[in-house]
């Protein structure tokens, strides 16, 4: 189980990402469409004032049961440990142990 502080930090990042998404996109579009260098610098300064944790690349996928960040399967939203246990208990439809 992940520390509660790490899980709460990730939740806070998700909220920041949602809050600043459109503002960040608008500023980036203005930077791309700017014609002179001074406008670009002004827009980049505005972009730097937005919190760093509002960037989507800072988000870390976590297992919704344990909060584990490593060994994460996107299709299920689970870590490899929980996925394996749930598959053995037949709790995931369509998943079965492979054999060849």
TrEMBL record:
Pfam families, per database record: Ribosomal_S14 (PF00253)
PROSITE patterns: RIBOSOMAL_S14
SUPFAM superfamilies in the cross-refs: Glucocorticoid receptor-like (DNA-binding domain) (SSF57716)
Recorded superkingdom: Eukaryota
One GO cellular component term: chloroplast
Transmembrane segments: none
Any one GO molecular function term: structural constituent of ribosome
Family to which this protein belongs: Belongs to the universal ribosomal protein uS14 family.
Protein name: Small ribosomal subunit protein uS14c
The species this protein was found in: Taenioma perpusillum
